[in-house]
Every structure is written in structure tokens, then in C-alpha cells.
Amino acid sequence: MVFGVDARGRRTDTTRILGTIAVVVGLLISVIGLVTDSTPAKGYFFAGLLVLTGIGLRLEAALTDRR
């Protein structure tokens, strides 16, 4: 049996998943960089951008899901 899923619901779920992945990857880059002590400043900047982008995507998904 196929359930009808609306397009907005799928977009919201996709946005939430991508946001979570971005946050996890950003934090993982930071933790690995701190442990190995070989990550340049650009790596931490990129990790920070990933985390901020992930938080933004998750907020967007939360606001879209509210409607």
C-alpha cells in the first residue's frame, strides 16, 4: 500500500536530514581537528560554516513544518 506524502512534507524531511548531516559533519571535522592537532584555521572555518548552515536548514524545516 502506498501512502500519499505531500511534496511539502518531503521537502521538510529532506531539509531536516541535510541540516543534521551538515551539523554532524561540521562537528566531526572540529573534533578530529582538535584531536589530531593538524587542521589549519581554514578547516575550522569550513566546519563552522557547515554547522551554521545545518542549524539554518533545521530551523527552516521546523518553521515549514509548523505551517
Estimated radius of gyration: 16 Å
Number of helices in the DSSP assignment: 2
Bin the helical content: over 70%
Which structural class matches the secondary elements?
mainly alpha
| Number of E-state strands | 0
Strand content: under 5%
Mean pLDDT: 87
End-to-end Cα distance, whole Å, is: 27 Å
Spans of at least 5 consecutive residues whose pLDDT stays below 50 are none
Q: Give me the strand/helix succession.
A: HH
Biggest β-sheet: count, sense, barrel? Answer: none
- What's the overall geometry? elongated
Describe this structure in words.
The chain has 67 residues and is an all-alpha fold. The protein is built from two helices and no strands. The chain has a domain at 23-66. The protein starts with 6 loop residues before the first helix and ends with a helix. Helix 1 runs antiparallel to helix 2. The protein has helices at residues 7-36, 41-66. The model has no long low-confidence stretch (mean pLDDT 87).
Highlighted features:
67 residues; elongated
Summarize, please.
The protein is mainly alpha-helical and 67 residues long.
Write the layout of secondary structure elements.
Layout: H1 7-36, H2 41-66
Helix pairs in contact: 1-2
